[in-house]
Specification:
74 residues; mainly alpha
């Protein structure tokens, strides 16, 4: 399974982006729990979830910066 592309995250609207962030955070929590109890069967999923969360948070931050840049006249 390949790592997800950031273009997929950029195509989401704000609501979908927030839902996806929440979903990935829950998934990451579950993976951490499985890792701690040594039940994690596919360790690469942990890396994929962290990568996806970083992408989603980056897109969220880009949008916040774009909003504040548009609101503040120079």
């Amino acid at each position: 399974m390949a790592l997800p592309k950031i273009s997929e995250a950029r195509s989401l609207n704000d609501e979908e982006l927030n839902e996806e962030i929440t979903t990935v955070k829950k998934q990451l929590f579950q993976l951490r729990l499985q890792k701690a109890t040594r039940q994690l069967e596919k360790p690469h999923k942990f890396r994929h979830a962290k990568h996806r969360l970083a992408q989603l948070l980056s897109v969220e931050h880009e949008r916040k910066l774009a909003t504040t840049a548009a609101a503040v006249p120079e």
